[in-house]
Amino acid sequence: MDKLQAEDARYLKRKVKRGSLDVHPTEKALVVQYEVEATILGEMGDPMVGERKECQKIIRLKSLNANTDITTLARRVVEECRLIHPSKLPEVEQLLFYLQNRKKPDKQEKHSPRDLTPFEGMELDEEANINCIDDYVELLYEDIPEKVRGATLILHLARNPDNLEELLQNETALGALARVLREDWKQSVDMATTIIYVFFCFSSFSQFHGLVTHYKIGALCMNITEHELKRYDLWQDELQKKKKAYEEDPDNQNVKKEHEKALKKYQGLLSKQEQLLRVALYLLLNLAEDTRTELKMRNKNIVHMLVKTLDREDEELLVLVVSFLKKLSIFLENKNDMAETHAVEKLARLLACDHENLLNTTLRLLLNLSFDTGLRSQMVQAGLIHKLSLMLADEKQGQLCMCILYHISVDDRFKSMFAYTDCIPQLMKMLFECGESHMEPELISFCINLAANKRNAQVICEGNGLKMLMKRGLKLKDVLIMKMIRNLSQHDGPTKNLFIDYVGDLAAQIGAEEREEYVIECLGTLANLTIPDLDWELVLKEYNLVPYLKDHLKPGSAEDDLILEVVIMIGTVSMDDSCAATMAKSGIIPALIELLNAQQEDDEFVCQIVYVLYQMVVHQATRDVIIKDTQAPAYLIDLMHDKNAEIRKVCNNTLDIIAEYDKECERKIQSEKFRWHNSQWLEMVENRAMGDDGEPFMFGDDGEAFMHNGDILERPDLFYTADGIIPADGTISPEFFTDYQNGDIGQAGGFPGSMNPDMFGQSTVTPGQRPATTYGTRPDEQFFYSYAGAASR
């Protein structure tokens, strides 16, 4: 004994202090917290060095379920675990009762890309330890099951962000993982999923993206995703064959069993494949933070892969795919790829889902795509107008739906489709619910667009619609509401007649004390009311509008938009002969001519001023003033051949009326038309009159005429003679020239085959019809036809 004590001078003394009990946050397990005190004693038994360490033990309760006897299980736990004092038995029972009744986490729980949910196959019967990383790496050199186990252990370490720095220093482990993934990913889906998950943990932090790129994991994920999508197509084809065989022979039990077996196998394979796709695509989404990396993905058809994945049913996978597409959609090239792959049709299917996160992300992607005209057309074809209209009342998604519908309503060809849905009644309800409070700009902008369509305007004005709009617009002096009302007033038919009751209210708003933008809308609404039964003379007198209109015709007196509305208003009231006379007496015509000089480069101003002159010459009372006391005819003659088609139409109609009542103007007009129509011929005649020395270009260097031995100017069949236009073959009689002088060409007895009364090819406008816009087709523009259309002519 003395010898042993001499050889072993020191020995270790351990003491365990029992601690607290708790439950595991995610597993069915108890957690025991305890403390270990280790003391080194000297030869005489005196303590020399002491150490204290806190530890925990996890007791997993695999047999715990709804039918377990809690009392028996608690007694067994206390007996087998020496760390729990018998006095803790009631506390153990209470904790077990809590675990037995704890609800499972909701499957619809949201997870961000940086918090990817665990998947089947990640469970382990041991706890991973960072100190054993070398042992886990050794497993990666064994067979597939050992590789899966080793990768899973490393994954458990990587899911803790505190371990990433240390794993980063272990190049052997990361290199082995990358090698196994590159060489063996086709052999095991579980192994590929687990290893990609490890690198996903690194990709969740921007500072580790260089590591993932170094091992080329992104490119490998692209290849894996492409391969898995092809496998999915093969599975689908095989399953369809089995299903077809079963449908053709439903009584054959063997065929039925084969179909059921194939379906069960397909579902199992699909579940694992979707786990793999989720991890791989999440990793790619993280790497796409760098636009250069994103461009490389685009070059490898990432958009096509994602759109193809939209056919899946897994909602978590779909949230990821749609989020990825939304990020890509901000670039033109990716948006074009989505248009080519008809992504909108597949996205429309997702609007019927109950997954809130998926629905919200889908709507945000559609909003990005709705800025493109072609994609808006695809949305309409996919029936999105009806689907989104039904979702307008949704508090969470209604705003996004309204923004998308607003973009669709920008196109005139789609406006009428809203009249056949519940969209307009819902919008009107939202407008009226606002009361006098602030109105969302998207809501009123959407309504303004819809009001520009005649059928929509009728739906809006049904019941008390127009009355409520006028009440809010006039009371709050709301410019946007008045803009909507102005759009409603432009449509002919029953809608326009509804405004008769509000003419006085609108006219009362015209004044210098009101805001210009508000006056513009009120004035524009009045100018649209081309109603024959409306007594404009009474309105002008009662509200003293003539001085206001005259004062705002002066260039620079107000913004151009307001001056233009004043001109249009004058054109509207001038349809009444008494109003036209009042305007002429007030000196408005010279003011219009002055404004025409100042705004001669603005086609809209020119067109509307000429329209006012047209209305003036229609009435006897103002016709003489226009013709004799102003320079209007001269200006109109100058504008006869303007490049703008609408200006030419209105100008020619005005000149036709002037020519009927003033012979001198008629001769000037005919002369100008003749000179314009025959300008090339007249130029050639003038050049010939200058003599041979004046125009040597008509002859060759040796003096010989270009046209053989004759001079083209010596052909009498091309010119007017003293008796008229008499061609050599005599097909047109001398009476033609007389008809020309009388202005009868194009009517009965005129040119054979002539189509319009206007011999110079000018199309006509119905008298009294206001030009809708000046921006028509210009004569110098080329028309393009399709080959099919050209072949049919």
From TrEMBL:
PROSITE patterns for the chain: ARM_REPEAT (PS50176)
SMART domains associated with the record: ARM, KAP
ARM repeats (start-end): 587-627
UniProt protein name: Kinesin-associated protein 3a
Gene3D superfamilies: Leucine-rich Repeat Variant
InterPro entries: ARM-like, ARM-type_fold, Armadillo, KAP3
A GO cellular-component term linked to this record: ciliary transition zone
Source species, domain of life: Eukaryota
A Pfam family that the UniProt record links to this protein: KAP
GO molecular function, one term: kinesin binding
Gene Ontology biological process terms from the UniProt entry: cilium organization; microtubule-based movement
